[in-house]
Design brief:
The chain is mostly helical. It has one domain. About 65% of the residues lie in helices and about 0% in strands. The protein has eleven helices and no strands.
């Protein structure tokens, strides 16, 4: 929805956030079920399936491939630390379903409803084009273009792009000229006008955009230290399922999310995810351990 006098459009962020609360509810149920050791053929397992389908529906219909990918990866992290390594057949089944799901999303997004178009999307070339070759994910060429275009076409930001997430909670309907959260739109001189949000630079290119080569060297070192500190701090608490779930959310958003998106955008999304999760865990008493009667 366009707003008169605004530099962008209304994306109904709070409504989208409300829809994504289904993912929080799903992971609370999934983590408790995984900790209980119960099989999928149980009442708790049926709840996991129902909430899992509901949590997947929204990102699927809005073609949020990263949302679906994060959901699958987080499920894997929770399962690994609460149930151990999955059986090869189960891992293969999850991989096949994931590929088919991504293929369906890409085929619908590109209006390729034919069988040949679907086969192309789930093939090796199609998946590589979407991941390594996709400018909205891990595309290596966009990083090269940004390194070549800064400061020739776009000036150094000197940290400005890292702090715009602070204004993210303010609705754009109240502040039409609110700065864009992501820096992608500012890269139009390099990539041209690409819709309204532009091209997400990824953390490597954004570090260069702000502080040059030194920014990449120091920034990636700090990012690695942050991820290691996160693991070392939470790992001793992993017998408690709640801490496994917290680690799954933080590690994916900080580690994988920033590789493809902007730092400010990832920080804003992290707040959107962690605030309802923290509230839910407080209401659960800070523990997701199954009750005594729920064990197997």
């Amino acid at each position: 929805m366009l707003i008169p006098g605004a530099q962008s459009f209304l994306v109904h962020g709070y409504l989208r956030w409300g829809a994504l609360l289904l993912e929080t509810a799903f992971f609370l149920i999934f983590t408790r079920w995984a900790a209980s050791g119960r099989r999928l053929r149980s009442a708790a397992g049926a709840a996991v399936v129902i909430y899992g389908l509901a949590a997947t529906a929204f990102p699927f219909f809005v073609s949020n491939r990263q949302g679906v990918m994060f959901l699958i990866i987080r499920m894997g992290i929770v399962w690994l630390y609460l149930r151990g390594e999955p059986a090869p057949r189960k891992a293969l089944a999850v991989a096949v379903v994931s590929v088919l799901l991504f293929g369906s999303m890409l085929a619908l997004r590109r209006d390729r409803t034919s069988w040949q178009g679907f086969r192309r999307e789930v093939g090796v070339q199609g998946l590589l084009e979407t991941t390594v070759g996709g400018r909205h994910f891990l595309d290596l060429t966009k990083t090269a273009h940004i390194l070549d275009g800064v400061p020739r076409l776009v000036e150094f930001q000197y940290g400005r792009s890292f702090v715009t997430w602070l204004v993210a909670p303010i609705p754009r309907s109240l502040w039409p000229s609110k700065p864009k959260i992501g820096v992608g739109g500012d890269l139009a001189p390099i990539f041209g006008t690409v819709w309204t949000t532009g091209v997400p630079p990824g953390i490597v290119a954004e570090l260069y955009l702000n502080f040059g080569i030194l920014g990449i060297l120091v920034g990636m070192l700090l990012a690695g230290a942050l991820l290691r500190s996160l693991y070392v701090t939470l790992r001793p608490r992993f017998p408690e399922p709640a801490f496994v779930l917290i680690y799954a959310f933080l590690s994916t958003r900080i580690g994988l999310g920033m590789l493809s998106a902007s730092v400010a955008g990832s920080a804003a999304r992290l707040l959107q995810e962690m605030i309802p999760l923290a509230v839910a865990l407080m209401l659960c008493g800070g523990s997701l351990h199954p009750a005594a009667g729920e064990e197997r």
